[in-house]
Amino acid sequence: MTLFGRGNHKRAFSLPPEYSRVDNLLDPTTPARLEDVIPDRKIYKHRTLVLCFDGTGEQFDDDNSNVVNLFSMLKKDDPEQQLVYYQAGIGTYSIPQIAQPWMAKVHKILDMMLGHHLDAHVMSGYEFLMQNYSIGDKICIFGFSRGAYTARALAGMIHKVGLLPRHNLQQVPFAYKMYSREDETGWRLSSNFKKSFSIDVDIEFLGLWDTVASIGLINRRLPFTSSNSNVRYFRHALALDEHRAKFSPSLWTHETNDDLSSKFGVSRGEMPKSNPKVKDQEASPEPSPILKHSHTRQSSTEKTLHEYEQEYDANSGSEPCTSVEEVWFSGCHCDVGGGAVKNDTRNALARIPLRWMIRECFKAKTGILFHRELLWKAGLDPGSLAPRASERPPVPYSNQSEAGSSTLNSPITPTTSQQNPFLKDFVSEEDEDRKDALTRVNDMLKKAPGWWILEVLPQKIKYLKADPDHPDDQAREVGRGWSWDYKICWANLGRARYLPHKHLGGVKVHRTVKIRMEAEAHELAERKKYVPRPKWNFKPLWVE
């Protein structure tokens, strides 16, 4: 465990893309049923491109993140049906252009602490899509921590400058430069660049675990990372008990454009859409009721960026129709994104948001192909996910599962149980939820005291405040009675995270938090009653 573990756009290098391998690496004794995938490929005619961006300092090891765990369940051996890509976390690779080993090590440390080479991570994912995208493909992107921010930046880059055709590698650095520019000229050039060089594609699914946007010494936000009308489904699992200063969550904020002129963007009809038939075959998602009308105030610099984003979307004809779900889970950063416990640990908090994310993939009908038998290890019953994601029964709020509270939709065979020791005492997904919810919270301020150094440094934080320009009876609607603002916090000192919308009845909390709150002290691993770190002066919206 490292001290800070977990938690000019000229380009001289590119991360080597880790494409899915087609060669058969399975042991010859592996049963053929591992090739049985869900959902049924006959239902979905499109190919899926799945990109996974790991968290800071994360890569394959003995305490894998949820990004690796999800990637391990994906079908990887048929690129005609599904093509997958994995990128290790920020700060995990060496830069080949740096000859001196000690210098390469310094760059790795700086990358891990400050996200110094974020541009290379984004461009590497962009190159994968550029080289592999075909009309009709659905793009699904996952990420954890700064890897989640990388995923959002990639989606934002595709929205602003489009996706270049294959074999245009020399144009990628210039495209990123156009994307990252925030001045008026840059936005206008981005629009012209997109029309001249790119194709217009959408992001089908953006699934994230606890996005952290602390990139560089000055946390400058990249365009379309807070909201993006090009994303169809946005799913975000957030850590309720994380309280480090440098791990402030980056939430979704949907801006309105009622009073903005249409200066930038690509007008609808100016560019051919690559996959209209595929998208029209399925029902359009409903926009989030809370975020649909969201309008926020920013500091002068941030407000300018938001205005440019809104003007770009207004001129492009984009509509804020993204289906948004941001749900809070018990635990700290790695209790949501994974990587806090060893891989062979039977129960852990991180398994809950992993199951939730996979279930959301099926509910959104993404068509992502999973190996049926590998889903059992995460505590999921494949029969409850396909052919249709079924409603979940109530959680048993006791040590023993209530009789008849849940039934398995897929039988566990003796052979399956022998291969997967996790299944020996498997009762139901609801029982797994309860067992996982009672496990230990992994607080890095306790496990790695070096993080306290950053707790005494000044930080800029974002918060929701009452808007005096609107009467109180309108304060239930985001943007009419409330607005975003910034303030300098001179010392965080382990202060709890701020929960936006908690006074608006809009905080979605996973039902396993209730299990943990209602459990007796002797049932919890810490042997004391659980109280969520944020002030619990609101009524949450419990979600399954």
TrEMBL record:
- On the tree of life, the source organism's domain of life is Eukaryota
Q: Name one Pfam family in it.
A: T6SS_Tle1-like_cat
Which InterPro entries would you find in this protein's record? Tle1-like_cat (IPR018712)
Q: Where is the T6SS Phospholipase effector Tle1-like catalytic domain positioned along the sequence?
A: 47-360
Q: Where is the composition biased (Polar residues)?
A: 397-421
Q: Where is this region: Disordered?
A: 262-303, 387-422
The name on file for this protein is T6SS Phospholipase effector Tle1-like catalytic domain-containing protein
- The protein's organism comes out as Collybiopsis luxurians FD-317 M1
